[in-house]
């Protein structure tokens, strides 16, 4: 069984052609089918139409940075962009990880108003990727096995085809994927949620990931991110 090209064009945008050229389309098909089955029997996030939103919002030719998280929010706030929320009514309504990310951003390199959707970052060439693109309601890491094959081959092929990308790996789980990044540059960062669980002792605060990203982009002679 495979997924139609029409469907894949709609959900992958400019990434479909390179994925086909890399020879990993069959892995993608199997993963989509497995994920779709979960939507048919359980409550799964994000909305099915947003599973591959990170790819749609950051075009293949534009990508220069890859943010790697773990899996989507399992409380219904997942948007298909790692760490992001749809615009909340109040700042206090931000998900804990995003709230911590925002606090560090405020102390590091802010140059514009904070966008909780994080689309302003994605549109500048940051692929806002989780290692699992779906999750069961209330069950973190529940779909890790569904996505592990896809994520491993995707990161491996991407790193070979675009060898000067910068990969920012948030948390120990994301950092376990470093072995699949055979070319490129990596930056290990504490996961923002760790500050929540540790009452501020995890040292995400003060790590300045945003300015470090731009410092690396300058070295690579790539456009910096307007944070």
Mean pLDDT: 95
Number of helices: 10
The CATH level-2 architecture is identified as: 3-Layer(aba) Sandwich
**Largest sheet composition:** 4 strands, parallel
In terms of DSSP E residues, the strand content is 5-15%
What is the straight-line distance between the termini? Answer: 43 Å
Q: Would you count the extended β strands for me?
A: 6
| CATH third-level topology | Uracil-DNA Glycosylase, subunit E
Radius of gyration: 17 Å
Number of domains: 1
Flag low-confidence runs.
none
**H/E element order:** HHHEHEHHEEHEHEHH
Strand order of the largest sheet: 3-2-5-6
Describe the structure.
The termini are far apart. The chain has one domain: Uracil-DNA Glycosylase, subunit E, CATH 3.40.470.10. The chain is an alpha/beta fold and 227 residues long. The model has no long low-confidence stretch (mean pLDDT 95). Helices cover 41% and strands 11% of the residues. It has ten helices and six strands, in the order H-H-H-E-H-E-H-H-E-E-H-E-H-E-H-H. It has helices spanning 5-12, 16-21, 25-41, 53-57, 96-108, 119-122, 144-161, 172-175, 192-197, 209-219; strands spanning 44-45, 65-69, 126-130, 135-136, 166-170, 185-189. It is globular and about 50 Å long. The longest helix has 18 residues, at 144-161. The strands form two sheets. It has a four-stranded parallel sheet. A two-stranded antiparallel sheet has the order 1-4. Helix 3 packs antiparallel against helix 7.
């Amino acid at each position: 069984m495979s997924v139609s090209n029409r469907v894949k064009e709609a959900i992958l945008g400019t990434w479909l052609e390179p994925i086909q050229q890399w020879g990993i389309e069959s892995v993608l098909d199997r993963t989509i089918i497995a994920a779709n089955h979960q939507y048919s029997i359980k409550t799964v996030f994000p909305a099915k139409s947003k599973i591959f939103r990170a790819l749609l919002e950051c075009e293949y030719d534009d990508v220069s940075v890859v943010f790697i998280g773990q899996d989507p929010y399992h409380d219904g706030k997942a948007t298909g962009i790692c760490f992001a929320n749809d615009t909340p009514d109040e700042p206090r309504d931000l998900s804990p990880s995003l709230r911590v990310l925002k606090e560090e951003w405020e102390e590091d390199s802010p140059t514009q108003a904070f966008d909780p959707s994080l689309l302003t970052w994605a549109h500048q060439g940051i692929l806002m990727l989780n290692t699992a693109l779906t999750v069961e309601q209330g069950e973190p890491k529940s779909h890790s096995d569904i996505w592990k094959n896809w994520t491993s081959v995707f990161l491996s092929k991407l790193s070979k085809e675009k060898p000067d990308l910068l990969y920012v790996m948030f948390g120990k789980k994301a950092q376990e994927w470093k072995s699949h990044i055979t070319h490129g540059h990596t930056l290990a960062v504490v996961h923002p949620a760790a500050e929540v669980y540790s009452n501020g002792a995890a040292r995400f605060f003060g790590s300045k990931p945003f300015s470090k990203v731009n410092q690396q982009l300058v070295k690579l002679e790539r456009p910096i991110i307007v944070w």
